[in-house]
Amino acid sequence: xxKTNAPRTLAQRMSEGRIPVAEALHYAMSLAESLRKLHDAGxxxxxxxxSGITLTGTGLDLIPSLGPPASVTPYTAPEVLQGxxxxxxxxxxxxxxxFYEMLTGRRAFDGDGQTALTLALVNSAPxxxxxxxxxxxxxxxVAKSPAARWQRMQKIIMELxxxxxxARRADAQPAPRGVxxxxxxxxxxxxxxxxxxxxxxxxxxxxxxxxxAGAAVAALREQVAGLSSQLAEVxxxxxxxxxxxxxxxxxISAHVDATLEAVSQRMxxxxxxxxxxxxxxxxxxxxxxxDLHDFEQTLKAQAGAIESARTAMAQTDDLVERVVEALxxxxxxxxxxxxxxxxxx
Length: 345
Prior knowledge:
Layout (H helix, E strand, L loop, with lengths): L9 H5 L6 H20 L12 E3 L4 E3 L15 H4 L6 H17 L9 H10 L8 H10 L11 H19 L9 H56 L8 H7 L4 H85 L5
Antiparallel strand pairs: 1-2
Helix pairs in contact: 2-4, 2-7, 4-6, 6-7, 7-10, 8-10
């Protein structure tokens, strides 16, 4: 028998048929961690396929990308087919399609020829896998719009850990007295519910902050537009016509002194009006400057609030991940203690 040291790829393993759930989850977790590290470094793979993944004794290795594939693959994201560059969300799409295929033994998107495959990737959804939890994870990865997909591998990793706990419970022996499958499943569902509620609350808070910032910008633009309108009206204000003193003297010689007094009064009022206008615009300038300052302070405060919300979301991700890991360790301890306990007659 001829032996070879060539590494075995995930494509070769998948060609043997559907991969058992525990093994598939192990491979999926290893791939998700590899993609997470790549994305955290600000990079994207862009061409995740089973043939570009080698199996190892502890999991798998993701072969670095040599550029986009020459042809369409069952793991190509729709936006890449439209000519857009691949990003982290494109990797999420490929991961979802690959994970579905490992668990079901069939491709999430398939077609006879490149044209049919392209249409399936752009228009079709994967058939149900038989597991609502798996379908939910896959759907979060393979949405047609990149914005509708799960944006971070951390979310996928947490879902995989929950699936791993559920799979171990399904394969395990009946639990010792006092440990209820239903109770543990309920705890997992409650944990998911709290996490989803917390994430929705943070997303709503960020949306409200962004909406308030937009309203403040609109109000400032209206104030600036009003000031510009007032300046235009002042510039268009007609100049008082000059007084023909000689003509008036010829016509009303008897009322020269009265006319000169009237002109003097009108000039005085004009000067007062000009001063009032100057003071008015000075006040307007001060108000606009104050409004601009307040607006800048508001933007800074809102930017800080948005950053705080994002930080809180990241901290929530880390907290939920630690809770899931603790739950997984607790489950392992329960199963191990059950296996070691003596059977009572």
